[in-house]
Amino acid sequence: YPRQHALETQLGKFNLTAIEAMLGSYTKVLFVRDPFQRLISTFMQGMGSSPSFSSFVQDVLDSGQPNTSVGSKPLVSLCWPCLVQYDYVVMFGFLRQELGHLLRRTGLPVDSLLPEFTDNQVRWTYRWLSEQMFSELSLQQKQQLSHFYRWDLSAFPFSSSFLSD
């Protein structure tokens, strides 16, 4: 797209005609991750100033969606999957398999570009960590989180998410 080197980086900075032209000229890839795992990751990276995971979750719930950090916002509010037709959706935990497929489809060499992933270890670790963190939450917090991320949970196949129950 001719304006690819423009200073504006968010689509909202462009007019509708430019947005349609850009979206039509690029391969659009969306990387998604279970919202509960995103919350854990944000907490673990110290992006929340709360002393416990439970109080961090309460801070996210109390602040409301517009005021939450990017790490805890629902994905649908960040990437608009109902409006943008993504060519590929890559799920966290299946990166090696899905990125290999994506690189082959785009004609790029697979072996030289893919780093080593340990998807099985990542899935097991996040499952264990999710169980621990989920057990810290009250029933009310669990229900509120499920409601807070309801659109993510319906838009993406997070079948093993703790928030799907």
TrEMBL record:
One of its GO terms (cellular component) is Golgi membrane. Its main location: Golgi. Its EC number is 2.8.2.-. InterPro entries: Carb_sulfotrans_8-10 (IPR018011), Sulfotransferase (IPR005331). The keyword Transmembrane helix applies. It is an enzyme of class 2 (transferase). One of its GO terms (molecular function) is sulfotransferase activity. It is found in: Golgi apparatus membrane. One of its GO terms (biological process) is dermatan sulfate proteoglycan metabolic process. Keywords: Carbohydrate metabolism, Glycoprotein, Golgi apparatus, Membrane, Signal-anchor, Transferase, Transmembrane, Transmembrane helix. It is a single-pass type II membrane protein. This is Carbohydrate sulfotransferase. It comes from Nyctibius bracteatus (Rufous potoo).
